[in-house]
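Reposting from the mailing list since nobody answered there.

I have sequence plus structure tokens for a pair of proteins and want to know whether others read the tokens the same way I do. The first protein:
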Amino acid sequence: MSRLASVRLAGELDLSNVSSLRAKLAAIDGPAVVDLSDVTYLDSAALNELAVLRRRVGSVALVVGSPNIRRTLEIVGFHGVFRIVTDPAEL
């Protein structure tokens, strides 16, 4: 991937702060990297916003440090539509 937009997220991503997440992701207008390394929890509202971003811009890579976050992404099938890496250097 060349020239990627990038956003780093942290903490809990859930319905209580989904509007802030939506605003951050709305600023992305092309292929992107979303760094979830510092995310401790994400719910279906946050997962939906990531899916909306993927549909809108096409190519999105997710940087995931937490095994629990990675497992959540795998359970919902995101490993099939997002590139999921542990280290940004893998991109």
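The second protein, same order (residues first, tokens after):
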Amino acid sequence: MATFSKSILSGSTDGKQIKVAQTATAGTLIHTGPTNTAHLHEIWLYAVNTSATDVKLTVEYGGAASPDDHIEYTVKAENGLYLIVPGLLIKGNATALTVRAFAATTNVICISGYVNVIA
């Protein structure tokens, strides 16, 4: 029977938000998936925009290929958290798939969230 445990994003320091510093691929590291091929990570990501203008955010989900691995979202200015990744799964892979993000403006988007580790 599978076990579930909630964990912080691997790119986070003690569960704090991750500031998106990159404006192009490869984006700021948000999370690294499992290397055990029997494990899954269910990823939940929220974004907040601290600037006075809307900003386009691109999440590179499991890779950097466009459009295959891209999730694009325009985050409204100064308007709270937006759900960007609603519990999508990453399966364990020997090369550990990653989730990264870049934005049209540097250092104004912060990402928070968590991972449900399914083993």
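Reply #1 (J.P.):
I read it the same way you do. Residues 25 and 101 are 8 Å apart (CA to CA).
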